[in-house]
TrEMBL record:
Keywords: Hydrolase. Residues 11-324 form the Beta-lactamase-related domain. This is Class A beta-lactamase-related serine hydrolase. Gene3D superfamilies: DD-peptidase/beta-lactamase superfamily. PANTHER family: D-ALANYL-D-ALANINE CARBOXYPEPTIDASE, D-ALANYL-D-ALANINE-CARBOXYPEPTIDASE/ENDOPEPTIDASE AMPH. It comes from Jiangella aurantiaca. One of its GO terms (molecular function) is hydrolase activity. Pfam families: Beta-lactamase, DUF7586. The keyword Membrane does not apply. Residues 348-432 form the DUF7586 domain.
Length: 451
Protein backbone atom coordinates (compact mmCIF):
# COMPACT_ATOMS: atom_id res chain seq x y z
CA UNK A 1 0.00 0.00 0.00
CA UNK A 2 1.02 3.64 -0.31
CA UNK A 3 1.92 6.12 2.41
CA UNK A 4 -1.00 7.91 4.10
CA UNK A 5 0.35 11.30 2.99
CA UNK A 6 0.36 10.16 -0.65
CA UNK A 7 -3.21 8.88 -0.33
CA UNK A 8 -4.26 12.19 1.20
CA UNK A 9 -2.68 14.17 -1.64
CA UNK A 10 -4.31 12.02 -4.32
CA UNK A 11 -7.70 12.15 -2.63
CA UNK A 12 -7.42 15.93 -2.36
CA UNK A 13 -6.74 16.15 -6.10
CA UNK A 14 -9.88 14.12 -6.79
CA UNK A 15 -11.93 16.39 -4.51
CA UNK A 16 -10.57 19.53 -6.17
CA UNK A 17 -11.30 18.14 -9.63
CA UNK A 18 -14.87 17.15 -8.70
CA UNK A 19 -15.62 20.57 -7.25
CA UNK A 20 -13.63 22.71 -9.67
CA UNK A 21 -14.86 20.99 -12.83
CA UNK A 22 -18.41 20.49 -11.49
CA UNK A 23 -18.50 16.73 -11.98
CA UNK A 24 -21.56 14.87 -10.68
CA UNK A 25 -19.17 12.15 -9.50
CA UNK A 26 -15.66 10.96 -10.12
CA UNK A 27 -13.86 7.76 -9.18
CA UNK A 28 -10.15 7.06 -9.59
CA UNK A 29 -7.60 4.41 -8.74
CA UNK A 30 -3.86 3.80 -8.85
CA UNK A 31 -2.19 0.52 -9.86
CA UNK A 32 1.27 -0.74 -8.93
CA UNK A 33 2.69 -4.24 -9.28
CA UNK A 34 -0.65 -5.42 -10.62
CA UNK A 35 -2.64 -4.28 -7.57
CA UNK A 36 -5.05 -1.44 -6.86
CA UNK A 37 -3.05 0.42 -4.21
CA UNK A 38 -5.29 3.47 -3.84
CA UNK A 39 -8.76 4.56 -4.85
CA UNK A 40 -11.06 7.44 -4.08
CA UNK A 41 -14.41 8.70 -5.25
CA UNK A 42 -16.43 11.84 -4.71
CA UNK A 43 -19.98 12.81 -5.59
CA UNK A 44 -23.18 10.86 -6.10
CA UNK A 45 -24.20 8.71 -9.04
CA UNK A 46 -26.98 11.14 -10.00
CA UNK A 47 -25.18 14.31 -8.90
CA UNK A 48 -27.79 15.16 -6.29
CA UNK A 49 -27.31 15.66 -2.59
CA UNK A 50 -28.41 12.60 -0.68
CA UNK A 51 -27.92 10.28 -3.64
CA UNK A 52 -25.82 7.12 -3.61
CA UNK A 53 -22.15 7.89 -3.17
CA UNK A 54 -19.80 6.71 -5.92
CA UNK A 55 -17.02 4.26 -5.03
CA UNK A 56 -14.58 1.83 -6.65
CA UNK A 57 -17.44 -0.59 -7.38
CA UNK A 58 -19.66 1.95 -9.19
CA UNK A 59 -20.09 1.24 -12.90
CA UNK A 60 -19.40 3.96 -15.47
CA UNK A 61 -19.52 3.71 -19.23
CA UNK A 62 -15.92 3.48 -20.43
CA UNK A 63 -16.48 4.62 -24.03
CA UNK A 64 -13.54 3.99 -26.34
CA UNK A 65 -11.56 2.03 -23.76
CA UNK A 66 -13.82 -0.72 -25.13
CA UNK A 67 -11.63 -0.68 -28.25
CA UNK A 68 -8.66 -2.04 -26.29
CA UNK A 69 -10.61 -5.20 -25.40
CA UNK A 70 -11.67 -5.70 -29.02
CA UNK A 71 -8.06 -5.20 -30.12
CA UNK A 72 -6.77 -7.86 -27.71
CA UNK A 73 -9.44 -10.25 -29.03
CA UNK A 74 -8.18 -9.63 -32.57
CA UNK A 75 -4.54 -10.17 -31.58
CA UNK A 76 -5.47 -13.43 -29.86
CA UNK A 77 -6.98 -14.60 -33.14
CA UNK A 78 -3.74 -13.68 -34.89
CA UNK A 79 -1.68 -15.57 -32.33
CA UNK A 80 -3.91 -18.62 -32.87
CA UNK A 81 -3.10 -18.48 -36.59
CA UNK A 82 -6.64 -17.63 -37.66
CA UNK A 83 -5.74 -14.36 -39.33
CA UNK A 84 -2.76 -12.18 -40.20
CA UNK A 85 -2.56 -8.48 -39.53
CA UNK A 86 -1.63 -7.90 -43.17
CA UNK A 87 -4.75 -9.72 -44.37
CA UNK A 88 -7.11 -7.57 -46.44
CA UNK A 89 -10.47 -7.31 -44.75
CA UNK A 90 -12.33 -9.11 -47.53
CA UNK A 91 -10.42 -12.31 -46.74
CA UNK A 92 -12.59 -12.58 -43.62
CA UNK A 93 -15.47 -10.14 -44.23
CA UNK A 94 -16.22 -10.24 -47.96
CA UNK A 95 -19.39 -8.15 -47.75
CA UNK A 96 -17.94 -4.63 -47.37
CA UNK A 97 -16.89 -1.83 -49.76
CA UNK A 98 -13.51 -1.49 -48.00
CA UNK A 99 -12.20 -4.99 -48.56
CA UNK A 100 -8.67 -3.90 -49.47
CA UNK A 101 -7.82 -2.29 -46.10
CA UNK A 102 -5.78 -4.44 -43.74
CA UNK A 103 -6.60 -5.52 -40.22
CA UNK A 104 -3.52 -3.66 -38.93
CA UNK A 105 -4.71 -0.46 -40.60
CA UNK A 106 -8.10 -0.80 -38.91
CA UNK A 107 -6.49 -1.39 -35.51
CA UNK A 108 -4.20 1.65 -35.81
CA UNK A 109 -6.74 4.04 -37.39
CA UNK A 110 -4.69 4.09 -40.56
CA UNK A 111 -7.32 2.67 -42.92
CA UNK A 112 -8.64 6.08 -43.95
CA UNK A 113 -12.22 5.22 -42.96
CA UNK A 114 -14.72 7.91 -42.05
CA UNK A 115 -14.83 8.76 -38.35
CA UNK A 116 -18.57 8.38 -37.78
CA UNK A 117 -21.64 6.80 -39.37
CA UNK A 118 -23.69 8.37 -42.15
CA UNK A 119 -26.88 8.14 -40.12
CA UNK A 120 -27.96 9.93 -36.94
CA UNK A 121 -25.41 10.58 -34.18
CA UNK A 122 -24.67 6.96 -33.31
CA UNK A 123 -23.64 7.65 -29.70
CA UNK A 124 -27.12 8.96 -28.95
CA UNK A 125 -29.37 6.67 -31.00
CA UNK A 126 -30.22 2.99 -30.94
CA UNK A 127 -27.73 0.95 -32.93
CA UNK A 128 -28.56 -1.14 -35.97
CA UNK A 129 -27.31 -4.54 -37.18
CA UNK A 130 -24.12 -5.26 -39.08
CA UNK A 131 -25.86 -5.41 -42.46
CA UNK A 132 -26.89 -1.76 -41.99
CA UNK A 133 -23.45 -0.61 -40.84
CA UNK A 134 -21.62 -2.44 -43.64
CA UNK A 135 -23.32 -0.26 -46.26
CA UNK A 136 -22.07 2.94 -44.56
CA UNK A 137 -18.36 2.15 -44.68
CA UNK A 138 -16.76 4.95 -46.64
CA UNK A 139 -13.32 6.46 -46.97
CA UNK A 140 -12.04 9.88 -46.13
CA UNK A 141 -8.40 9.22 -47.04
CA UNK A 142 -6.40 6.59 -48.96
CA UNK A 143 -5.53 3.61 -46.77
CA UNK A 144 -2.10 3.70 -45.15
CA UNK A 145 -1.37 7.38 -45.75
CA UNK A 146 -2.37 9.08 -42.50
CA UNK A 147 -3.90 8.70 -39.07
CA UNK A 148 -7.66 9.29 -39.04
CA UNK A 149 -9.54 8.11 -35.96
CA UNK A 150 -12.46 5.91 -36.95
CA UNK A 151 -15.16 4.59 -34.67
CA UNK A 152 -16.53 2.68 -37.66
CA UNK A 153 -13.26 0.80 -37.94
CA UNK A 154 -13.85 -0.84 -34.57
CA UNK A 155 -17.41 -1.68 -35.49
CA UNK A 156 -15.81 -3.60 -38.36
CA UNK A 157 -13.29 -5.28 -36.03
CA UNK A 158 -16.07 -6.30 -33.65
CA UNK A 159 -17.85 -8.01 -36.52
CA UNK A 160 -14.56 -9.66 -37.54
CA UNK A 161 -14.18 -11.13 -34.04
CA UNK A 162 -17.79 -12.29 -34.07
CA UNK A 163 -17.55 -13.83 -37.54
CA UNK A 164 -14.41 -15.84 -36.77
CA UNK A 165 -15.69 -17.03 -33.38
CA UNK A 166 -19.29 -17.69 -34.36
CA UNK A 167 -20.62 -15.66 -31.42
CA UNK A 168 -20.91 -11.98 -30.56
CA UNK A 169 -17.81 -9.88 -29.89
CA UNK A 170 -19.11 -9.11 -26.38
CA UNK A 171 -19.39 -12.81 -25.53
CA UNK A 172 -15.87 -13.39 -26.83
CA UNK A 173 -14.51 -10.53 -24.70
CA UNK A 174 -16.45 -11.71 -21.66
CA UNK A 175 -15.47 -15.38 -21.93
CA UNK A 176 -11.85 -14.96 -23.06
CA UNK A 177 -10.83 -11.84 -21.12
CA UNK A 178 -13.23 -10.56 -18.47
CA UNK A 179 -14.00 -13.86 -16.76
CA UNK A 180 -10.38 -15.12 -16.60
CA UNK A 181 -9.24 -11.73 -15.26
CA UNK A 182 -11.95 -11.60 -12.61
CA UNK A 183 -13.57 -8.49 -14.10
CA UNK A 184 -17.08 -9.44 -13.02
CA UNK A 185 -18.36 -5.85 -12.92
CA UNK A 186 -17.55 -5.13 -16.57
CA UNK A 187 -20.62 -5.56 -18.77
CA UNK A 188 -22.08 -4.42 -22.09
CA UNK A 189 -25.05 -2.70 -20.41
CA UNK A 190 -25.24 -1.02 -16.99
CA UNK A 191 -25.72 -3.14 -13.88
CA UNK A 192 -26.51 -1.42 -10.57
CA UNK A 193 -24.94 0.28 -8.80
CA UNK A 194 -24.04 2.43 -11.79
CA UNK A 195 -23.62 6.11 -12.42
CA UNK A 196 -26.19 7.95 -14.51
CA UNK A 197 -24.93 9.64 -17.66
CA UNK A 198 -25.35 13.39 -17.22
CA UNK A 199 -24.60 16.63 -19.04
CA UNK A 200 -23.82 19.59 -16.79
CA UNK A 201 -25.12 22.97 -17.98
CA UNK A 202 -22.15 25.22 -18.83
CA UNK A 203 -23.63 28.26 -17.05
CA UNK A 204 -25.85 26.79 -14.33
CA UNK A 205 -25.54 24.09 -11.68
CA UNK A 206 -28.14 21.80 -13.23
CA UNK A 207 -27.84 18.53 -15.14
CA UNK A 208 -29.55 16.84 -18.07
CA UNK A 209 -29.81 13.03 -18.27
CA UNK A 210 -28.11 11.56 -21.32
CA UNK A 211 -29.52 8.59 -23.27
CA UNK A 212 -28.27 5.02 -22.77
CA UNK A 213 -28.83 2.35 -25.38
CA UNK A 214 -27.40 -0.68 -27.15
CA UNK A 215 -25.03 0.51 -29.86
CA UNK A 216 -25.69 -2.50 -32.06
CA UNK A 217 -22.97 -2.98 -34.66
CA UNK A 218 -21.22 0.16 -33.36
CA UNK A 219 -21.04 -1.18 -29.79
CA UNK A 220 -17.38 -2.36 -30.15
CA UNK A 221 -16.41 1.31 -30.43
CA UNK A 222 -17.66 2.28 -26.97
CA UNK A 223 -20.26 0.04 -25.35
CA UNK A 224 -18.67 -1.45 -22.22
CA UNK A 225 -19.32 -0.37 -18.63
CA UNK A 226 -16.85 -0.96 -15.81
CA UNK A 227 -15.58 0.10 -12.40
CA UNK A 228 -12.36 1.45 -10.98
CA UNK A 229 -11.55 -1.92 -9.46
CA UNK A 230 -12.17 -3.83 -12.69
CA UNK A 231 -10.31 -1.34 -14.87
CA UNK A 232 -7.41 -1.43 -12.43
CA UNK A 233 -7.12 -5.10 -13.38
CA UNK A 234 -7.12 -4.08 -17.05
CA UNK A 235 -4.44 -1.47 -16.38
CA UNK A 236 -2.36 -4.24 -14.80
CA UNK A 237 -2.95 -6.31 -17.96
CA UNK A 238 -1.72 -3.48 -20.18
CA UNK A 239 1.24 -3.10 -17.83
CA UNK A 240 2.34 -6.68 -18.55
CA UNK A 241 0.37 -8.87 -16.13
CA UNK A 242 -1.63 -10.68 -18.78
CA UNK A 243 -2.05 -13.97 -16.87
CA UNK A 244 -1.10 -15.93 -19.98
CA UNK A 245 -4.00 -14.52 -22.01
CA UNK A 246 -1.59 -12.64 -24.27
CA UNK A 247 2.14 -13.08 -24.75
CA UNK A 248 4.58 -10.37 -23.69
CA UNK A 249 5.74 -10.14 -27.31
CA UNK A 250 2.22 -9.51 -28.60
CA UNK A 251 1.52 -6.90 -25.92
CA UNK A 252 4.75 -5.12 -26.86
CA UNK A 253 3.68 -5.27 -30.50
CA UNK A 254 0.39 -3.57 -29.62
CA UNK A 255 2.28 -0.80 -27.81
CA UNK A 256 4.49 0.17 -30.74
CA UNK A 257 3.43 3.48 -32.36
CA UNK A 258 2.18 2.91 -35.89
CA UNK A 259 0.19 6.06 -36.63
CA UNK A 260 1.26 9.43 -35.25
CA UNK A 261 -1.43 11.91 -34.19
CA UNK A 262 -0.19 14.89 -36.18
CA UNK A 263 -1.47 18.25 -34.95
CA UNK A 264 -0.07 21.15 -37.02
CA UNK A 265 2.06 23.50 -34.97
CA UNK A 266 2.44 21.07 -32.06
CA UNK A 267 5.08 18.45 -31.22
CA UNK A 268 4.29 14.79 -31.75
CA UNK A 269 3.23 13.52 -28.36
CA UNK A 270 0.47 11.06 -29.28
CA UNK A 271 0.16 8.00 -31.47
CA UNK A 272 -1.80 4.80 -31.88
CA UNK A 273 -0.54 1.25 -31.90
CA UNK A 274 -2.62 -1.86 -32.52
CA UNK A 275 -5.78 -0.75 -30.75
CA UNK A 276 -3.96 1.17 -28.02
CA UNK A 277 -3.54 4.90 -27.55
CA UNK A 278 0.05 5.94 -26.84
CA UNK A 279 1.52 9.07 -25.27
CA UNK A 280 5.09 10.38 -25.20
CA UNK A 281 5.45 12.79 -22.28
CA UNK A 282 8.98 14.13 -22.10
CA UNK A 283 10.44 10.79 -23.16
CA UNK A 284 8.24 8.72 -20.83
CA UNK A 285 5.99 6.33 -22.76
CA UNK A 286 2.42 5.62 -21.71
CA UNK A 287 -0.19 3.29 -23.11
CA UNK A 288 -3.91 2.86 -22.61
CA UNK A 289 -6.93 4.71 -23.97
CA UNK A 290 -9.32 7.52 -23.27
CA UNK A 291 -13.07 7.18 -23.54
CA UNK A 292 -16.13 9.37 -23.94
CA UNK A 293 -19.80 8.74 -24.51
CA UNK A 294 -22.74 11.05 -23.81
CA UNK A 295 -22.71 11.44 -20.02
CA UNK A 296 -19.33 9.81 -19.40
CA UNK A 297 -15.58 10.40 -19.63
CA UNK A 298 -12.88 7.87 -18.78
CA UNK A 299 -9.18 7.12 -19.09
CA UNK A 300 -6.77 4.27 -18.43
CA UNK A 301 -3.10 5.26 -18.61
CA UNK A 302 -0.12 2.99 -17.88
CA UNK A 303 3.58 3.77 -17.69
CA UNK A 304 5.06 1.45 -20.32
CA UNK A 305 8.33 1.02 -18.42
CA UNK A 306 7.18 0.54 -14.83
CA UNK A 307 3.62 -0.75 -15.25
CA UNK A 308 2.27 1.90 -12.86
CA UNK A 309 -1.23 2.87 -13.97
CA UNK A 310 -4.16 5.14 -13.27
CA UNK A 311 -7.91 4.82 -13.89
CA UNK A 312 -10.30 7.79 -13.94
CA UNK A 313 -14.09 7.55 -14.45
CA UNK A 314 -16.69 10.31 -14.30
CA UNK A 315 -20.34 10.74 -15.32
CA UNK A 316 -20.35 13.97 -17.28
CA UNK A 317 -20.41 14.69 -21.00
CA UNK A 318 -17.74 17.40 -20.67
CA UNK A 319 -15.70 19.11 -18.01
CA UNK A 320 -13.00 16.72 -16.82
CA UNK A 321 -9.72 18.63 -16.88
CA UNK A 322 -7.49 17.66 -19.75
CA UNK A 323 -4.51 15.76 -18.38
CA UNK A 324 -6.09 14.98 -15.00
CA UNK A 325 -5.26 11.27 -15.20
CA UNK A 326 -1.65 12.13 -16.05
CA UNK A 327 -1.52 14.57 -13.12
CA UNK A 328 -2.68 11.87 -10.72
CA UNK A 329 -0.12 9.40 -12.02
CA UNK A 330 2.69 11.97 -11.89
CA UNK A 331 1.78 12.88 -8.31
CA UNK A 332 1.80 9.23 -7.31
CA UNK A 333 5.13 8.35 -8.92
CA UNK A 334 6.81 11.47 -7.53
CA UNK A 335 5.63 10.68 -4.00
CA UNK A 336 6.20 6.92 -4.26
CA UNK A 337 9.36 6.41 -6.36
CA UNK A 338 10.19 2.83 -7.15
CA UNK A 339 13.13 1.23 -5.37
CA UNK A 340 15.53 -0.16 -7.96
CA UNK A 341 15.93 -3.93 -7.92
CA UNK A 342 18.92 -5.40 -6.12
CA UNK A 343 21.90 -5.97 -8.39
CA UNK A 344 22.96 -9.59 -8.30
CA UNK A 345 25.71 -11.63 -9.87
CA UNK A 346 24.49 -13.25 -13.07
CA UNK A 347 25.55 -16.05 -15.36
CA UNK A 348 27.35 -15.15 -18.58
CA UNK A 349 28.43 -17.77 -21.15
CA UNK A 350 32.26 -17.80 -21.23
CA UNK A 351 32.37 -17.29 -24.99
CA UNK A 352 30.89 -13.82 -24.59
CA UNK A 353 33.89 -12.45 -22.70
CA UNK A 354 35.95 -12.21 -25.88
CA UNK A 355 33.19 -10.08 -27.41
CA UNK A 356 32.32 -7.56 -24.71
CA UNK A 357 34.01 -4.19 -24.51
CA UNK A 358 34.67 -1.37 -26.97
CA UNK A 359 33.99 -1.69 -30.67
CA UNK A 360 34.22 0.89 -33.42
CA UNK A 361 31.80 1.63 -36.21
CA UNK A 362 34.13 3.61 -38.37
CA UNK A 363 35.52 6.08 -35.86
CA UNK A 364 32.50 6.02 -33.50
CA UNK A 365 33.00 4.21 -30.19
CA UNK A 366 30.41 1.61 -29.16
CA UNK A 367 30.14 -0.62 -26.11
CA UNK A 368 29.05 -4.25 -26.25
CA UNK A 369 27.78 -5.60 -22.93
CA UNK A 370 26.70 -9.08 -21.89
CA UNK A 371 23.21 -9.56 -20.49
CA UNK A 372 21.45 -12.55 -19.01
CA UNK A 373 20.57 -15.64 -21.05
CA UNK A 374 23.37 -14.95 -23.54
CA UNK A 375 21.85 -11.67 -24.72
CA UNK A 376 23.97 -8.70 -25.77
CA UNK A 377 23.47 -4.95 -25.75
CA UNK A 378 25.27 -2.71 -28.22
CA UNK A 379 25.13 1.06 -27.92
CA UNK A 380 27.20 4.23 -28.32
CA UNK A 381 29.77 4.78 -25.61
CA UNK A 382 28.84 8.46 -25.46
CA UNK A 383 25.55 10.23 -26.11
CA UNK A 384 22.54 9.00 -28.06
CA UNK A 385 22.64 6.83 -31.13
CA UNK A 386 21.75 3.43 -32.48
CA UNK A 387 21.39 1.08 -29.54
CA UNK A 388 19.82 -2.36 -29.54
CA UNK A 389 19.54 -5.52 -27.54
CA UNK A 390 20.31 -8.84 -29.23
CA UNK A 391 19.19 -12.35 -28.35
CA UNK A 392 20.83 -15.59 -29.55
CA UNK A 393 19.33 -16.84 -32.80
CA UNK A 394 20.17 -20.49 -32.11
CA UNK A 395 22.65 -20.64 -34.98
CA UNK A 396 25.70 -19.03 -33.42
CA UNK A 397 24.61 -15.46 -34.01
CA UNK A 398 22.19 -12.94 -32.56
CA UNK A 399 19.16 -11.01 -33.78
CA UNK A 400 18.24 -7.43 -32.85
CA UNK A 401 15.23 -6.85 -30.62
CA UNK A 402 14.69 -3.10 -30.74
CA UNK A 403 15.81 0.22 -32.13
CA UNK A 404 17.40 0.58 -35.55
CA UNK A 405 18.64 -3.01 -35.56
CA UNK A 406 15.35 -4.72 -34.63
CA UNK A 407 15.22 -8.00 -36.56
CA UNK A 408 18.69 -7.50 -38.02
CA UNK A 409 21.41 -10.19 -37.75
CA UNK A 410 24.60 -9.83 -35.71
CA UNK A 411 27.39 -12.33 -36.36
CA UNK A 412 31.02 -12.77 -35.38
CA UNK A 413 33.58 -13.02 -38.21
CA UNK A 414 36.81 -14.81 -37.21
CA UNK A 415 40.36 -15.12 -38.44
CA UNK A 416 41.65 -18.52 -39.56
CA UNK A 417 43.05 -19.13 -36.08
CA UNK A 418 39.62 -18.61 -34.52
CA UNK A 419 40.23 -15.18 -33.04
CA UNK A 420 37.66 -12.47 -33.65
CA UNK A 421 38.23 -10.41 -36.81
CA UNK A 422 35.16 -8.13 -36.56
CA UNK A 423 31.41 -8.02 -35.96
CA UNK A 424 29.06 -7.91 -38.92
CA UNK A 425 25.79 -6.18 -38.08
CA UNK A 426 23.38 -5.91 -41.00
CA UNK A 427 26.44 -5.42 -43.28
CA UNK A 428 28.02 -2.79 -40.98
CA UNK A 429 31.48 -3.78 -39.77
CA UNK A 430 32.45 -3.15 -36.14
CA UNK A 431 36.17 -3.43 -35.38
CA UNK A 432 38.26 -3.45 -32.22
CA UNK A 433 40.14 -0.31 -33.28
CA UNK A 434 38.91 2.48 -35.57
CA UNK A 435 39.07 1.16 -39.14
CA UNK A 436 41.17 -1.84 -38.17
CA UNK A 437 43.20 -2.77 -41.32
CA UNK A 438 43.02 -6.47 -40.34
CA UNK A 439 39.22 -6.44 -40.67
CA UNK A 440 37.18 -6.70 -43.83
CA UNK A 441 36.05 -3.08 -43.98
CA UNK A 442 33.94 -2.47 -47.13
CA UNK A 443 35.73 -0.02 -49.39
CA UNK A 444 39.05 -0.93 -47.76
CA UNK A 445 41.25 1.00 -45.34
CA UNK A 446 43.72 3.53 -46.68
CA UNK A 447 47.08 1.66 -46.58
CA UNK A 448 48.89 4.77 -45.35
CA UNK A 449 46.79 4.64 -42.17
CA UNK A 450 45.90 7.50 -39.87
CA UNK A 451 47.85 10.70 -40.54
Amino acid sequence: MIRPTTATDLTRLVAEEQAGSRLPSIAAGMVRDGELVWSAARGTIDGREGGREADEHTQYRMGSITKTFVAVAVLRLRDEGRLDLTDPLDKHLPDTPIGDVTIAQLLSHGAGLQAETDGPWWERTEGGPWRSLSTQLGRRHPAGQRFHYSNLGFGVLGELVARLHGRSWSKVVSEELLEPLGMGRTTSRPVAPHAHGLAVHPFADVVLPEPEHDGGAMAPAGQLWSTVRDLARWAAFLGGRTDGLLSAETLAEMCRPLAVVDVPGAPWTGAHGLGLQLWNDGGRRFTGHGGSMPGFLAEVRVDAETGDGVVVLTNTTAGLSRGFAAELLDTFTAAEPRTPPIWRVGSVPPELFELVGHWYWGSTTFELRAMGEGWLRLGPAHGAGRASRFRPDGDGGWVGLDGYYAGEPLRVVRHADGTVRHLDLASFVFTRTPYDPRADVPGGVDPAGWR
